[in-house]
Design brief:
The protein is built from 21 helices and 15 strands. It is of the alpha+beta class. Helix 2 (10-18) crosses helix 3 (26-33), helix 6 (78-88) packs across helix 7 and helix 6 (78-88) crosses helix 8 (106-118). It is elongated.
């Protein structure tokens, strides 16, 4: 018993000390204990759980004031406002003047007129409302007095309640009456509190609610850090809109207009707008020439008739290299380093490692003395240092815009080997068509998969899930860890 009493809080002790054997309403307990009513409600639940008090709840129907009834209680009943306005007008007024003076609504004015006429407080003579003097001879009686009684929970006759309900001043609601009384166990505890000084004890090992501080989603932190690292290494970020023309998505990249990737089954198409503007005419003509016969690059080209209409079609960006194409058209510094964190869209089969809408980290380095080994070294360092991959492998690959081309796969501790980057050296048909001298190494990396490595998760869909439990427990994706 003593240990349980020691655990009582200050407000529990005050409430317990004020309790009686008889049931007491919470309002009465609040007055006797000096504890606010909200604190009484909490203490009642606690003391009841500990067996020191008995909490009784009874449901009952009760009449309460409506919003209109509260206005009538504070400002006066419409019939009283009606009579006061008539008195100010010397006891005689037209309907229009009296309604303007009283500022009652049409509904309130009509109700007040009927009530005062029924009580013989007014008469209507030749279209004018006149006082009879009866109201002055009687006590200033009004249902307003009963509104106060209803508010305080006092008993009011059923006939009056019915009348006030019809007028929309009161309504019936189901309420819960709660009372509190002391138990025999509570009396013993109360006696102990009054006979000796008992210091409260605290259980410092008791479980407490978890507090989840606001924070950025781990994946957003990861993207931000990748961006900061690349900027620190001297890379410039490229403009990467969600929608591009096929000219940037395919044609600048020397991908023929007959390629299967440009069909509706392998790429998304916009309904509106269907076309966009192409860049400078000289650039368009140079790309056209490269496709048809190689232009000034020494290549034989693809040998077909290139269509400007197809090139101007607008599509959701299908790869980050579309933004590289835009940057090359707009101009680059030599030597120079560029990157983009791009949202891309591709028809695919949704599974643990594939999404229809995902992020890519696209980048390229342009200079006069670059070679394929520079590219492989950069990709390996990125996979091991940033993604935390155990091992990496390179495989020959093919892209219309790079030669040689390579695929990068990295080993996940649980999922095994996963492909997450394609790379290569830009072909002369690309660079020379745009008047760019030198070499360029480029890569497109599934940065979502990089995050999977860093977070140690098996399903790429978790990066975009609405599972708060996952985000709260996910470890930080800090690159220096």
């Amino acid at each position: 018993m003593l240990d349980r009493v020691k655990e009582l809080s200050e407000i529990e002790r005050k409430v317990l000390s004020s309790l009686k054997k008889e049931d007491s309403a919470f309002e009465e307990v609040s007055v006797n204990s000096g504890v606010p009513i909200d604190s009484v409600r909490r203490s009642a639940a606690w003391l009841s759980e500990k067996g020191f008090a008995k909490l009784v709840e009874k449901k009952a129907e009760k009449f309460v004031l409506t919003a209109q009834g509260e206005i009538a209680l504070s400002k006066g009943m419409p019939e009283n406002v009606f009579l006061e306005a008539l008195t100010r007008l010397k006891g005689k007024a037209s309907f229009k003047d009296l309604q303007a003076e009283s500022k009652l609504s049409q509904q309130e004015f009509t109700a007040a007129l009927g009530i005062n006429k029924r009580k013989a407080f007014i008469v209507i003579v030749q279209g004018e409302i006149q006082e009879t003097g009866v109201a002055k001879d009687q006590e200033n009686f009004s249902e307003q007095n009963y509104l106060q009684d209803i508010l305080e929970g006092k008993k009011v006759s059923g006939e009056l309640l019915s009348d006030l309900s019809k007028r929309g001043l009161v309504e019936k609601k189901e309420v819960v009456d709660r009372t509190l009384s002391i138990t025999p166990e509570g009396e013993k505890a109360k006696e102990m509190l009054s006979s000796q000084t008992i210091t409260r004890v605290y259980d410092v090992e008791a479980p407490v609610p978890s507090i989840f501080a606001g924070k950025k989603a781990p994946y957003m932190q990861f993207l931000t850090q990748i961006r900061q690292k690349l900027v620190a290494l001297g890379f410039s970020e490229m403009y990467s809109p969600l929608v591009v023309s096929e000219f940037y998505n395919f044609d600048v990249l020397y991908q023929p207009q007959t390629h299967s990737a440009r069909t509706s089954t392998d790429s998304y198409q916009l309904k509106t707008p269907k076309t966009g503007r192409l860049p400078d005419r000289k650039i368009v003509e140079s790309i056209k020439a490269a496709h048809e016969y190689g232009g000034k690059t020494g290549s034989t080209g693809w040998g077909y008739e290139w269509s400007e209409d197809i090139a101007s079609r607008v599509v959701p960006a299908m790869h980050g290299t579309a933004h590289t194409a835009r940057q090359l058209v707009n101009g680059v510094k030599i030597p120079g380093k560029y990157f983009a964190m791009a949202r891309v869209f591709r028809p695919d089969v949704l599974d643990a490692t594939h999404l229809l809408e995902f992020n890519q980290m696209e980048g390229f380095v342009v200079g006069e003395d670059l070679n394929f080994k520079h590219l492989l070294g950069m990709l390996k360092d990125f996979a091991i240092e940033v993604a935390g991959a155990e091992k990496v492998k390179f495989f020959p690959d093919y892209y219309p815009f790079t030669e040689p081309s390579v695929q990068l796969s990295a080993k996940h501790p649980e999922m095994g080997w996963i492909e997450f980057a394609g790379a290569g050296m830009f072909r002369p048909e690309m660079l020379e068509s745009l008047g760019i001298k030198g070499e360029a190494i480029a890569w497109g990396m599934g940065i979502d998969r990089l995050a999977m490595f860093k977070m140690g998760i098996k399903d790429i869909r978790y990066l975009f899930a609405e599972d708060l439990g996952f985000y709260r427990n996910a470890k930080g994706l800090f690159l220096d860890k």
